[in-house]
Automatic annotation (TrEMBL):
Molecular function per GO: lyase activity; metal ion binding
Database matches in InterPro entries: CbiX-like, Sirohydro_Cobaltochel/CbiX
Pfam hit, one: CbiX
Stated name of the protein: Sirohydrochlorin chelatase
Keywords from the UniProt entry: Lyase, Metal-binding
Source organism phylogeny: Bacteria, Bacillati, Bacillota, Bacilli, Bacillales
Organism annotation: Staphylococcus gallinarum
Domain of life: Bacteria
PANTHER family: SIROHYDROCHLORIN FERROCHELATASE, CHLOROPLASTIC (PTHR33542:SF3)
CDD domains, A to Z: CbiX_SirB_N
Length: 255
């Protein structure tokens, strides 16, 4: 977690999503979150890294103009890469330069939470119940051409899901271990493979990747699970990340 101290006041939770410039996508995601937290007593603001409205900079600066100084920043990202290590901190540092009393804490990504492992295992188990011919599982994640942390995190997740008695492997869209180079070899060995997309939603990138995989040789018998798609358990993960920040803030500001 990353802590930046400044003034101390009311704490506001900001959930930071990737977002997209494609029309209607951010609005759809906003509706997903309204449904996800429909019954939860959780106050939060949504902000996007991409798009023209409700950007992280716009949301934070608007709240600062209303007298808010302290922010819990919860990246709605499964794994740490450029958005986590660079984009979000740089936006917040720029704002803090103009408004020094501001302080904020950035939570860990969601993918290392045990509940994410449980969600993935449930997807695998549900598929195996319906299809007993599956020979292996491949976890498909975004990855990074710059950072190794996403690959390490996905491999750790695969280890935690290795309870079904069949091989579980990982591939990425970008960086070392990318699916273009490695998936065909996996499918030659295990034609009946279940691919689980480790993404928050079955959006454009997931659909495009599925199409590319189906066009590969040896992909005739591949089965795809759905992405996480804002299942109810995701709310627990986010609330736990907020609780972790509150504990950390109490320690930091008590010293």
């Amino acid at each position: 977690m990353q802590v930046y101290r400044g003034g101390l006041d009311v704490v506001v939770n900001i959930l930071v999503l990737h977002g997209m410039n494609r029309p209607g996508v951010n609005e759809s995601v906003r509706e997903n979150f309204e449904q996800l937290f429909n019954d939860a007593q959780l106050k939060y603001h949504l902000a996007f890294l991409e798009g023209d409205t409700q950007t992280l900079k716009q949301v934070v600066e608007l709240l600062i103009s209303k007298g808010i100084k302290h922010f819990n920043i919860i990246p709605i990202l499964l794994f740490p890469a450029k958005h986590y290590f660079e984009d979000i901190p740089n936006i917040l540092k720029d704002i803090k330069r103009n408004y020094p009393p501001m302080n904020y804490i950035i939570a860990e990504p969601l993918g290392t939470h045990q509940t994410i492992s449980n969600i993935v295992k449930n997807k695998i188990a549900n598929t195996l119940i319906k299809n007993d011919k599956v020979q292996s599982v491949v976890l498909l994640a975004h990855g990074s051409s710059t950072y190794t942390e996403p690959r390490q995190a996905v491999q750790h997740l695969a280890q935690s899901c290795d309870v079904f008695g069949i091989p579980i492997q990982t591939v990425l869209l970008y960086g070392e271990g990318n699916y273009v180079e490695h998936l065909e070899k996996m499918l030659k060995q295990y034609p009946q493979t279940l691919i689980v997309p480790l993404f928050l939603r079955d959006g454009y990138l997931v659909q495009r990747t599925k199409q590319n995989i189906r066009q590969q040789a040896f992909a005739e018998y591949v089965t795809f699970a759905s992405a996480i798609n804002f299942v109810p358990d995701l709310a627990k993960v986010i609330k736990d990340r907020i609780n972790e920040l509150e504990v950390l803030a109490n320690v930091c500001y008590a010293s």
